[in-house]
Write the structure tokens for this entry.
Amino acid sequence: MNVNDKGYIHQRLLKMITDKTAVVGIIGLGYVGLPLAIHFGRHGFRVIGFDVDARKIDKILHGESYIKHIPEASIRELIDKKQLDVTIDFSHLKEADCILICVPTPLTDKMEPDLSYLLSTTKTISQHLRQGHLIVLESTTYPGTTEEMLLPSLTSSDMRIGEDFFLAFSPEREDPGNQTYTAVNIPKVVGGVTRPCLEASVALYNTITETVPVSSTRTAELTKLLENTFRSVNIAMVNELKILAHKMGIDLFEVIDAAATKPFGYTPFYPGPGLGGHCIPIDPFYLAWKAKEYDFSARFIHLAGEINVSMPYYVIEKTIEALNTHKKSLNGSRIMLLGMAYKKDIDDDRESPGYAIMKLLSEKGAIVAYNDPWISQLEPTRKYNFQMTSTAITPEVLTEMDAVIIVTDHSGYDVEEIVKFSKIVIDTRNATKNVKDNREKIFMA
């Protein structure tokens, strides 16, 4: 094809992706970006990772992993083969042909979208944008973000979308710690601003997994929000039913398992102490916020959010009830939380309900400790600043505690031993369901 032809840049990019001579740049090397970098590197692409955290960059360059479920061998292999390079110098964006944005999109204290990281990243990309760049936003956000925020910042008089550069949205579907489903076997939903944008992004992701092309970036953006809103609403429903079932003297976990035997029309969801992670507690509120622009109130989302946010308070209520049976007050009691990760067998504590429970216990005068085999020390978060280290679980420590609350059911916990040596166990995850002895010590929450 002649270099003066209108589609030359597009065709050249497609060929580079097919030949795997295209360089993949990934901005944000967290729970989404780092695994993605490894997958593209393993599939033959040269990858450049970008992050503002120099500590992460230093660890990767030394072949170390700062995410426990990502083995260091995966990183060292790519570093040694020179398939992966990482840097805090964003001027190297010019070397990348495909730029994937995996930066945080949290909520403000007022439960509104905080797109400051995305705005800053987009501005940086615009300073280094060149012909042939494919830019894909993976960070979860509200419908319209890609075209309303990113596109105007990237488009200029001499850079035309769909001809000179290409822009798309493909929501991350990473599930930290999941050994069955990863980026290479989870289909990628992809929406492009223009047809060439869609073709380029589909071509890129097709090199590592199956793709699901959709008609627009807005469709792709809403797809991710639907997925997590569906989970948020259903978890809220079973959380509410858990409280009702307790009042009725019914084991809701048994009910859920029985209902799950139906081969159609039912999907099991399980209650817990509240929602955690970067997706389910946050993403639905992006949609609810955007809905206001259309004079629409997303009532299900708000109600589900209220129920899920209330669950740590319910755990405290059940803890007080359990202590009362031993003629103990929560004020002055020694309480140990087991698990600060938001789900089992990972070191991700983002939005963990354990923090809310810890805060409520402390405010009511309890003396709080925690154990988590995946999180040795609590670092300051957006909302909390508990500077504590994990306390080892020993028979002596458990005996000293007035109550133990199972917040996260890590596989490494010996629940029979925990129940044996503890005075009281408040189980929020049904982790003790198979414990036969000392059932009188167990209180479900």
Q: What stands out?
A: The chain is about 40% helix and 10% strand.
